[in-house]
Amino acid sequence: MSHIHINLDHVTFSYGKGQPVLNDLCLSAAEHDSIGIIGANGVGKSTLLKLLVGLELPDQGEIRIEEIPLKKQTLQKIREKIGYVFQDSESQLFMTTVEEDVAFAPRNYGLPEEEVSRRVDAALKRVHIEHLKGKSIYRLSGGEKKLVSIATILSMTPDIILMDEPSVALDPQNRRNLIHIIREFEHLKMIASHDLDFIWDTCERTILMNDGRIVWDGPTEEIMRNEKLLTENGLELPLSLSRR
Amino acid sequence: MNQAIRELQSLESLSKEDRWVNNLHPLVKLFVTALFLVLTVSFDKYNLAGLLSMAVYPLVTFTIADLSFADALKRLRYVLPIVCVVGIFNPFFDRDIVMQVGSLAVSGGVLSMLTLMGKAILTVLAGYLLIATTSMERICLGLRMLHVPSLLVTEILLIYRYLTVLLKETRRVTNSYALRAPGQKGIHISAWGSLAGLLLLRSMDRAERLYESMQIRGFHGEFYTGRQESMKKADWIYLAVWTAVLCALRFLPLTAVLGGWIA
After folding, report:
1. Which residues of B227-249 are buried (b: 16+ CB within 10 A; e: fewer)?
2. Which of A165, A164, A83 is nearest to A119 (CA)?
3. What does pLDDT average to over chain A?
């Protein structure tokens, strides 16, 4: 039986003293789960991912990642286990070349240079961008930046991958490529997206959020066909279904 | 703005090219540059001839590094006039005639102004040569080897990174303004305040996200370049030759000796 990797216990979070963005959220995810997080704009999808990687800390409740409680003192340990792909790839990349950016995390974790080099090559190969290795970050297209930002987290060999709108800025071929990469990733992955077709292609389980709460949590197939529930929560049927 | 971003990018590409000067140990280049700067600014305010001999360093380095002098002047076109302003008032304060060039009497003020300008130009060129042949990461690696505190080195690197972020944000904001203000030249003064505020907020936001990205990838205050660099024979030779040449140019009366020979 696969053990629980992520556990949220009555988590509430708000930015400043405003309305809670996440409200009494309970959630657990197991080792090999692939979870889509869907919902209209501003329902707290990105905030949930930020909390899981410790970029924000909950006001109330507890988050445990692989049984480790998420708090300031455990952030480093937890971040070694989680790879987080930002919505805006441009904000994720900051070194001068692709190689240096992908090597950034392994070097920070103190790995020997041969291992860093091996991981960089493996990560680039996994997203099929070996040819970009020496290229300057500034000269990458939007789609290439997205793939490089995925490579930067794969080089960490994380146990958990969190992705915020990964399909944005990708052309159809790169989108298909990314779907394969995500499917091949054997550990826990959580993907926040408006792209329901992408979620359907990559996730077996989907969480529907509205107003900082989980409205529905179950098999992706089931929710994607539930037009009423989707519409009530500011979404529409996936394009692949609505065209039929 | 696009031009500025392109210049920054091309300078960075230049520093990463596989040329032997680029591959020299960063510590050597840092030391030679620092030595050059110290010796250059130490010249007496009337010693223009001595100062001009220091031009050997940029001239030789431009040649051996295969860098275009014209490109350098083009890139420094905004900086050089500003540094040349240094000492512009000297001719008004120091009117004593100190030398005669043919029938032209040169006052101390003019000479000291030219010397100051020469110092400014030479030091800017030396800085340019350093960054055109050494990436910022390697410069910072050299600084760390000199035991400059990691906090300071990280600050330098981050400021350098944020420079691009700031430029890109400025480009976005000005493009967005220009598209909605067709036919208008520049940005109207009434919009300056709000645009500057917006720019500040947006670049802070971008900088925050960049920092978050670094944090979640294990950054804890120290940049690792992965290059285990040790000094090679070429590094020692480069260091020894330039130290000797620069010290000779500064401390030996070479211009007087040369002048004597010519006379």
Report:
1. eebeeeeebeebbeebeebbeeb
2. A83
3. 90
pLDDT along chain B (263 residues), means of 10: 77 83 91 95 87 92 88 81 78 80 82 88 92 88 87 84 82 84 81 87 84 86 71 92 93 72 59
In 3-state terms, what secondary structure has residue A134? coil
Q: How far apart are CA A118 and CA A32, in angstroms?
A: 25
Q: Show which of residues 78-137 on chain A sit within 8 Å of chain B, judged by CB atoms.
A: 79-80, 82, 84, 86, 88, 90-97, 100, 103-105, 107-109, 113, 116, 136
A119 CB contacts (<8 Å, ≥6 apart)?
Answer: A102, A103, A106, A111, A155, A157
B-chain residue closest to A158, CA distance: B217
Instruction: For residues A24 and A11, give the distance between their C-alpha atoms in angstroms, rounded to a whole number.
Output: 5
Residue ranges of domains in chain B:
17-134+230-262, 150-215
Q: In sequence order, what are the residues at sequence separation of 6 or more whose Cβ sits closer than 8 angstroms to the Cβ of residue A121?
A: A130, A133
CA distances from residue B196 to B87, B163, B182 in whole angstroms, order as listed: 33, 15, 20
CA distance B43 to A221: 79
What is the tens place of the pLDDT at every residue in A175-224?
Answer: 998 999 999 888 899 999 999 999 999 999 999 999 999 999 999 999 99
Helix (H) or strand (E) holding A184: helix A172-184
Would you report the helix, strand and coil content of chain B in percent, each value rounded to 5?
A: 70, 5, 25
State both tokens at A33.
Answer: 């789960």
Size of interface A-B (CB pairs under 8 A): 70
Does residue A55 sit at the B interface (CB-CB below 8 Å)?
yes
Which residue is associated with the tokens 């960054």? B131
CB within 8 Å: A76 and B16: no
Neighbour count for residue B226 (Cβ, 10 Å): 18
Token digits of residue A1: 């039986």
What is each CA distance from B133 to A138, A222, B36, B128, in whole angstroms? 19, 59, 16, 9
**DSSP, residue by residue, A190-208:** EEE-S-HHHHHHH-SEEEE
- Give the CATH number of domain A32-53+83-242: 3.40.50.300
